[in-house]
């Protein structure tokens, strides 16, 4: 095989430095030195000066609404102003984030503009998500093989994260449903197979579930209308999270004075109380008649079933794990299940899902920073993901999991997995807080207080705190407990000398952690 180029020009488009960093690494890669690599911002690349023994490698992020970074804007304009680029050969590595609507929008447009002008891509375009490092490590050896003449290697490489969303979700087979506790409502471990989906995620990210409605609820609404076709009509409409605009329209169609009255601002509390746990069938029965709100009008009125977000409990790869609490309650003589949890825990073989990046809950870049992980109930989910990432990284750091539940015997979620992580040295401290095990209630804030010295030492070493669980119960209690251990041990925050008296304007530790990006919260 003979090499396809003598020279490699590496042009980068980068706002915050990721693409530039990769470009510089590529430029320094030993395998590329035979091709005299030159690294420069895309705006400085003169495509009209490239010869037919040059390969243009483009590494760029996307910004705004899928637009080029500032140092790639002029390059894009020059490409658009050129009619024929048939001599140009290129390889594009795009960096983006599926959290943005126009995922890798710039590099996709650039690739299309080059193709329209008959330029040749020697490797399939890469659309990388926040997990771009893993793609880069796979892409560089292929680039090297292509340069050496193995053009098929470039055609065989497919590194494109697909940006799924609620309108184009991936139907992921469910490969495991396992109850983790002994009581009702159940806490379930659910595993999806996402092989071949092009979906990429990392620990801390969220999975959105696009549910279908409970068949019993659909049948009951169809019964109310006395029309079986209503089941299909409403299968994918939102039947539980009912917005103000839907209520207003129902009040208008039904002409019901009670509903109109409840919509007045002065009665907001009453309306909120009524809506808690209510669904469309309640509204129909309580305020409407099948004649005043016809089923077609109702279907038109209701938005599509809203996707529900869940914290991912695994780390990258071909599977996504969730830890889900069953939602089940009775109201007005009727059992109700959560729309998404009902769908997840039903018997459906596959479920439509998509991932969204959640950078605020990723592991810190500093691989030596200790981790203090605090979670209650299914709030353990993303913490399991983070621990799995520590395990996969292979770089050991001090980690402490403070896990709160009711009973060690009945509710110790992931007991075996945690024991294995302990044995493996991934989880260095496990502090369970089972509220009903002893004569006194014992919650995570009590565990924080009891082990204050040890936690304080970790915080002094730059620990990051991750908190996940119920907003109402957890946030304030944990924040206060952290502030209290800092005060007791000599604050590492601002305004107090270690061991000294607090000043009047002392900044609590939780604030200091938050300001320095070391307090990560996922509360619901
Ligand atoms: C304000 C802002 C806007 C962004 N817009 C997009 C976007 O439209 N599409 C996309 O795929 N990624 C978008 N991203 C994600 C970046 O492309 C991603 O973080 C990339 O790794 C940054 O690389 P850089 O450091 O080389 O600029 C955006 C990021 C920020 C902070």
TrEMBL record:
Coiled-coil boundaries: none
Identification of the protein by name: NADPH--hemoprotein reductase
Annotated FAD-binding FR-type domain residues: 167-364
Organism of derivation: Pseudochelatococcus contaminans
EC number: 1.6.2.4
Top class in the EC scheme: oxidoreductase
Annotated keywords: Electron transport, Flavoprotein, FMN, Oxidoreductase, Transport
Matching Gene3D superfamilies: 3.40.50.360, NADPH-cytochrome p450 Reductase, Chain A, domain 3 (1.20.990.10), Nucleotide-binding domain of ferredoxin-NADP reductase (FNR) module (3.40.50.80), Translation factors (2.40.30.10)
């Amino acid at each position: 095989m003979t090499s396809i180029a003598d020279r490699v020009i590496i042009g980068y488009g980068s706002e915050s430095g990721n693409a530039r960093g990769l470009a510089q690494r590529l430029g320094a890669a030993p395998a590329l030195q035979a091709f005299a690599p030159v690294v420069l911002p895309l705006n400085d690349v003169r495509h009209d000066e490239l010869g037919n023994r040059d390969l243009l490698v483009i590494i760029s992020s996307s910004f705004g609404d899928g637009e080029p970074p500032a140092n790639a804007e002029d390059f894009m304009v020059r490409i658009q102003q050129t009619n024929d680029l048939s001599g140009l050969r290129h390889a594009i590595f795009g960096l983006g984030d599926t959290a943005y609507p126009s995922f890798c929008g710039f590099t996709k447009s650039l690739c299309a503009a080059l193709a329209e002008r008959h330029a040749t891509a020697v490797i399939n375009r890469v659309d990388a998500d926040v997990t771009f490092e893993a793609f880069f490590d796979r892409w560089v050896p292929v680039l090297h093989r292509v340069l050496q003449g193995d053009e098929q290697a470039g055609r065989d490489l497919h590194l494109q994260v697909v940006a799924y969303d609620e309108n184009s979700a991936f139907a992921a087979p469910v490969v495991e449903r396992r109850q983790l506790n002994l009581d009702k409502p159940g806490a379930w471990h659910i595993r999806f197979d996402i092989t071949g989906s092009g979906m990429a995620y990392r620990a801390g990210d969220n999975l959105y579930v696009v549910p279908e409605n409970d068949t019993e609820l659909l049948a009951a609404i169809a019964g109310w209308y006395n029309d079986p076709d209503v089941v299909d009509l409403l299968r994918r409409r939102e039947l539980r999270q009912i917005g103000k605009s839907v209520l207003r329209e129902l009040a208008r169609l039904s002409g019901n004075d009670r509903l109109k009255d409840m919509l007045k601002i002065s009665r907001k509390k009453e309306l909120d109380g009524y809506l808690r746990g209510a669904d469309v069938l309640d509204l129909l029965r309580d305020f409407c008649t099948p004649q005043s709100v016809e089923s077609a009008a109702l279907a038109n009125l209701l938005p599509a079933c809203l996707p529900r977000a869940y914290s991912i409990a695994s780390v990258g790869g071909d599977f996504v794990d969730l830890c889900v609490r069953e939602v089940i309650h009775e109201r007005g003589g009727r059992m109700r299940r959560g729309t998404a949890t009902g769908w997840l825990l039903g018997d459906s073989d596959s479920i439509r899902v998509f991932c969204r990046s959640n950078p605020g809950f990723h592991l810190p870049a500093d691989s030596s920073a200790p981790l203090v992980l605090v979670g209650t109930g299914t709030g353990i989910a993303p913490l399991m993901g983070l621990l799995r990432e520590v395990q996969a990284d292979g770089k050991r750091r001090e980690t402490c999991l403070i896990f709160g539940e009711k009973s060690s015997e009945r509710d110790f979620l992931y007991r075996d997995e945690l024991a294995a992580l302990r044995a493996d040295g991934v989880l260095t401290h496990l502090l369970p807080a089972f509220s009903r095990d002893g004569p006194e209630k014992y919650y995570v804030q009590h565990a924080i207080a009891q082990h204050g010295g040890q936690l304080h030492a970790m915080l002094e070493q730059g620990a990051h705190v991750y908190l996940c669980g119920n907003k109402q119960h957890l946030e304030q209690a944990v924040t206060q407990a952290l502030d209290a251990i800092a005060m007791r041990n000599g604050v590492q925050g601002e305004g107090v000398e270690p061991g000294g008296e607090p000043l009047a304007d002392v900044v609590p530790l939780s604030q200091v952690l938050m300001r320095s990006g070391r307090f990560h919260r996922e509360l619901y």
